[in-house]
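Re: that backbone. C-alpha cells:
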C-alpha cells in the first residue's frame, strides 16, 4: 500500500491509499492560487533539476509538466527524442545514465512500453521518477487531475473548497467510463483512483475493446450503454487509440459512434448536472459529438488547466524531504 508519495516515485495509482490520493489533491488545491497570480511562480523547487523525457509524442502532458516544474522554480531539461541518440539505437538505460550525469533530481517520462518508468527508477534509485504514461499500464497524473477536477466541480456546486469537502463527495459517486478501455492507460489510472476514493465505477465498451482480465478490475461492465448514461453522475470518454491498433477492434468508426459515441441525441439522456470528461485529444464526431464537447457540463478544458497544479503537487511532494544530491 502506497501511503504517501512524499519523497517517493509516482509510477502507478494502483495500490495507493485514500490518504495518499487526498494528499496530492489537497496539495494541488494550494497551488491553484499560484496559477491565478500575475506572477505564477514560487521558489519551492529552486535549484532542483527536472528532466522531461518523452519517447512518445505529447502536447498536454509534456507542456503541463514543464510548466509545473518552471512555476516551482525548477530548472527543466527537455529531451527531444526525435533528434537524440535514441534514434541511433541507444538503450533506455544508457539514455538514463546520460541524463543522470547532468545531475538531475527528477525524471518525468513517457514511454511506449509498459513498465519503462519502473525500469528507470531501478537504474537511478536516487532520482525521483514520475510516470507520464507507460504503454498500456498507467498514466497516474491524469487519474489524479481527473479526480481533482471532479472534486473541484462538486465543491463549487456546494459552495465549499475541495480541502473542506474532503473524501465524502466521492463516496457512492456514479462514474461511467466509455470507449477504448483495452488500450487506455488513462482508464486504468482513473479506475483505480475513483475506486479507491469510494466511487461506483462502471465501464461501457464493445467487447473487443475490453481487456481480457476486466473481471479483476474494481468495475462493473454495463450491457446497456443508454441506461448507464441515465445512471451516471460522471461520464468519462476515451478516444479510440488508433496508434495502438484500436481501429482494427471495431468494424468502423461510424459503427462505434452509433453504438458507444456520446452523440447529441444520446447526450439528452444525461442528467442536467452530469459531468462530461475527456482526457484529450478528442476525436470530435467519433467518441463525442462536437456540440456535446462544448456544453456547459463538459469540463475538458478545465482538465487541461488542472494538469498544472496537480503536476506541481506531484513534483513538489516527490522531491519534498529529499536533499540535494539525492539522499533523503
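Recovered sequence:
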Amino acid at each position: 500500500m502506497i501511503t504517501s508519495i512524499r519523497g517517493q516515485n509516482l509510477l502507478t495509482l494502483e495500490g495507493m491509499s485514500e490518504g495518499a490520493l487526498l494528499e496530492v489533491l489537497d496539495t494541488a488545491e494550494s497551488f491553484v492560487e499560484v496559477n491565478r497570480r500575475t506572477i505564477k511562480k514560487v521558489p519551492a523547487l529552486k535549484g532542483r533539476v527536472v528532466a522531461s523525457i518523452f519517447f512518445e509524442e505529447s502536447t498536454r502532458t509534456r507542456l503541463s509538466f514543464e510548466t509545473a516544474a518552471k512555476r516551482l522554480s525548477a530548472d527543466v531539461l527537455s529531451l527531444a527524442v526525435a533528434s537524440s541518440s535514441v534514434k541511433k539505437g541507444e538503450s533506455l538505460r544508457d539514455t538514463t545514465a546520460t541524463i543522470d550525469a547532468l545531475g538531475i533530481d527528477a525524471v518525468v517520462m513517457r514511454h511506449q512500453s509498459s513498465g519503462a518508468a519502473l525500469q528507470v527508477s531501478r537504474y537511478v534509485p536516487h532520482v525521483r521518477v514520475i510516470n507520464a504514461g507507460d504503454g498500456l499500464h498507467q498514466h497516474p497524473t491524469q487519474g489524479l487531475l481527473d479526480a481533482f477536477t471532479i472534486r473541484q466541480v462538486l465543491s463549487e456546486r456546494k459552495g465549499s473548497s475541495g480541502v473542506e469537502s474532503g473524501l465524502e463527495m466521492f463516496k457512492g459517486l456514479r462514474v461511467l467510463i466509455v470507449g477504448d478501455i483495452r488500450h487506455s492507460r488513462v482508464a486504468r489510472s482513473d479506475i483505480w483512483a475513483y475506486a479507491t476514493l469510494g466511487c461506483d465505477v462502471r465501464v461501457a465498451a464493445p467487447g473487443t475493446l475490453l481487456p481480457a482480465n476486466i473481471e479483476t478490475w474494481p468495475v462493473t461492465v454495463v450491457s446497456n450503454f443508454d441506461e448507464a448514461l441515465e445512471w451516471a453522475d460522471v461520464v468519462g470518454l476515451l478516444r479510440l487509440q488508433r496508434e495502438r491498433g484500436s481501429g482494427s477492434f471495431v468494424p468502423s468508426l461510424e459503427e462505434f459512434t452509433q453504438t458507444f459515441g456520446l452523440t447529441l441525441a444520446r447526450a439528452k439522456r444525461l442528467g442536467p448536472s452530469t459531468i462530461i470528461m475527456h482526457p484529450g485529444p478528442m476525436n470530435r464526431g467519433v467518441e463525442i459529438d462536437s456540440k456535446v464537447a462544448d456544453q456547459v457540463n463538459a469540463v475538458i478544458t478545465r482538465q487541461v488547466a488542472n494538469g498544472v497544479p496537480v503536476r506541481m503537487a506531484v513534483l513538489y511532494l516527490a522531491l519534498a524531504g529529499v536533499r540535494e544530491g539525492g539522499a533523503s
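The domain at 18-136+307-319 is CATH 3.40.50.1370 (Rossmann fold). The chain has a mean pLDDT of 91.
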